[in-house]
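Need tokens for this chain, all 249 residues.
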Amino acid sequence: MALAILIIGWIVAKVIVGTFKKSLKKTKLPELVVEFLGRFLSALFYVVIFLLAIRALGVHTGSVVLGLSAVIGLVLGFGMQDTLTNIAAGIWLAAFRPFDMGEVVTIAGYTGKVEGIGIMATGLLTADNVVITLPNKLVWGSPIVNYTRMPIRRVNVDVGVAYEADLDKAIKIAMNLMQDHPLVLVDPAPNVAITGLADSSINLQLRPWAKTGDYWTVKGELTKAIYEAYKRECIEIPFPQLDVHLRSD
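Here are the structure tokens for all 249 residues:
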């Protein structure tokens, strides 16, 4: 009977939670909030199913609840504060939504796509398919950099030209490359900035704007294109060199 309660209860809980999440999605709530509420409801169901299974074994649930209360009291004494903090932080994250499901963020030095937010922790999936689980209190207490929340982004492509190069020509070539690229937006308009005078080069930065989904495509293609264009037009891209002089005594 206890085993039947566990199996049937688990199935019923899955069906009810699934229906609950589907109904919430129809209300246009953020997916992150729906996922959080679904996991919270699942946890409550599992506790009830566990107590029913224990009762089916002939154990009085009152004594079980009393035992659980003692355990909870012990946990409270040794670390429930962190648990409650994580739960509260999860509620604040779901309410204020500094990020949503599928967005790419950097939190506490970790970068990845948001896979979900649970009662206790938030999950990130990195570009090399590694799952990172962060406690909610760490997420809420850290600066959150959201790369994909805005519909467009500025792409920065850095390149250096030699001091002997024709600077105006180098800037014009860079502008033409950005203006001719099909994924570069017309508004905001692209521009080229002189970012510094280094030891061996004048540093330029190409600053086109693109849709967020096209960011890495534009960055990669413009980096390759500016190198090929400067090579074709004989504009030197210098690199650090070291002259070593040997002398014999």
